[in-house]
Amino acid sequence: xxxDLTADQVLDKMAKYCAYQERCxxxxxxxxxxFDLPANAKEEIMNYLIDNKFVDDRRFAAAYVRxxxxxxGWGVNKIRFNLIKKGIDSEIINEALxxxxxxxxxxxxxxxxxxxxxxAQNEFQAKQKLAAYAIQKGFxxxxxxxxxxxxxxEFGNEEKD
Length: 161
Known about the structure:
There is one protein chain. It is built from 9 helices and no strands. It has helices at 7-20, 25-32, 39-51, 57-70, 76-85, 90-98, 102-115, 123-136, 141-150.
């Protein structure tokens, strides 16, 4: 716990913390606990950060959804679960997830599955392994199976002439 900082210094640190990357309200409150300030000073800092748009859960959720789908290859279920863990309101989560383009989402899943190396004895086993992988990454089973069934699956047993 840092005890030698004034409220203004903590506010400056927190503003920089929020400006560095998108943060949700819960992350900022957690970070504020590191400072030895009275509760009312922490509340004033939090209010300032929210009022001046340093912290915005809607903006955070939108950026989180974009980042996790594009960089991490996560599906909707995994993203939703992690946003709930961060204390984001379900209305905000639904709004952020609704911004996903369904066609782009399926193309992304197709790409992820095509790049997945699997060893299987037959097409059924290959599809099962791909589905398990996609669902583990948070993709919905219905979307996963729709994509898998539209793909040509190669499963290691190559035909010989």
